[in-house]
Specification:
By secondary structure, the protein is mostly helical. Helix content is about 75%, strand content about 0%. It has 2 helices and no strands. It has helices spanning about 1-30, 40-55. About 0% of the residues are buried.
Length: about 60
C-alpha cells in the first residue's frame, strides 16, 4: 500500500510542477505596456542601421 501512495505522491508532485511551469510560461508571454516605448526606439535604430548599410554598399569608389 505504501508503494501505491508514494507513486501517487510522485505523480501529484510532477503534475503540480508541470502546472507551475505552464502558468509561469503563460505569465511570461503577457506584454508589459511599461516597456512599449522601447519598441519605437529600436525600430528607429534598426532603420538607421539599414540605411547606413545601403549607403555603404551603394557608394561610388573613387580611384
Amino acid at each position: 500500500m505504501t508503494d501505491e501512495s508514494e507513486e501517487l505522491n510522485e505523480i501529484a508532485a510532477a503534475a503540480r510542477d508541470a502546472k507551475r511551469a505552464r502558468e509561469a510560461a503563460a505569465d511570461a508571454t503577457v506584454y508589459n505596456r511599461d516597456h512599449w516605448p522601447i519598441v519605437p526606439i529600436a525600430i528607429g535604430v534598426g532603420s538607421a542601421a539599414m540605411t547606413a548599410a545601403f549607403l555603404y554598399v551603394n557608394r561610388t569608389r573613387k580611384k
